[in-house]
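TASK: fixed-backbone design
INPUT:
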């Protein structure tokens, strides 16, 4: 019976796969930016303050944040705004209950995890951090 060694790249691969799929799924919601009329009507009907600004801001954050998550770029900077957007989704569509807004809550948890642990080893953030640390060693 072979023993599986989990100390290699398997956890790195797992975090990368979860990050990329999370980014892809949130981009799909952000694509509503290009046909936003339904969302704006909903926000106006729910009497959300500044519905046009709120709608566009949420969709831009989802779209750009999803791209950044896929690349692993500025991960710790884009996840807090994404968490705020997901809280807004829970508040508006599920009336503040996480059990009716499960998907938004799960997204919020994933964004929280990436805010805490970062993008992982296979990311642009990691490459940039290594590049900066190499330059510091030279100087």
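OUTPUT:
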């Amino acid at each position: 019976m072979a023993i599986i060694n989990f100390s290699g790249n398997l956890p790195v691969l797992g975090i990368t796969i979860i990050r990329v799929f999370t980014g892809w799924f949130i981009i799909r919601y952000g694509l509503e930016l290009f046909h936003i009329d339904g969302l704006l009507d909903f926000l106006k009907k729910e009497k959300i303050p500044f519905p046009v600004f709120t709608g566009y801001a949420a969709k831009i954050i989802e779209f750009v944040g999803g791209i950044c998550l896929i690349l692993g770029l500025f991960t710790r900077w884009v996840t807090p705004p994404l968490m705020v957007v997901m809280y807004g989704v829970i508040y508006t569509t599920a009336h503040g209950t996480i059990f009716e807004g499960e998907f938004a809550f799960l997204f919020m948890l994933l964004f929280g995890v990436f805010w805490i642990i970062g993008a992982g080893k296979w990311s642009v953030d990691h490459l940039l951090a290594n590049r900066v640390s190499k330059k510091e060693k030279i100087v």
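COMMENT: The chain has one domain: 15-138.
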